[in-house]
Amino acid sequence: MPNAELINTDPIVSQNFFLEIDGSVVSILSSVSGLDIEMEVVTMEQAGANGKVQVVKTLGKSNKAPDLSLVRMAPPDMTQDKLWGWFNDIRDKGILLSDRTNNRKSGSIVMYDSTNAEIARFNFTNGWPSKISTDQLSVESNDPVKETITLTVESLARVK
């Protein structure tokens, strides 16, 4: 008979997603993907006893950093939008090689439940928006226009 105490909490059901930069909400999100926390694996082959090949897997130099894909409703005025401002600043001025903190920012993807309680937080470091894609437009649709932002990050960690 299974132990009834194995599942004693409700599953995570996130109702709201936000992008925070430096502790301030930059954008409300409708979906997020790429929250992959992965370690680099190195595979080696070596000859063992009697010349039999052995495969050894071990931890590599660093953890893999994913690209985050953030979907949100397109802002009505992109000139007043912080994310568009950040993207345009990088596109127009670039990222200085001499100053790695220039235009790279650290922040969080924060998830809230239906009672607006924070239920999960993924912190990233040295991120920057490398792409903004606008959904296909059609006169036959009543759907709101969405944007997909690719956020390139150097590290990602779930902290809550």
UniProtKB/TrEMBL annotation:
InterPro entries: CHP02241, Phage_T4_Gp19. Coiled coil: none annotated. It holds the Pfam family Phage_T4_gp19. GO terms for molecular function: structural molecule activity. Transmembrane segments: none annotated. This is Phage tail protein.
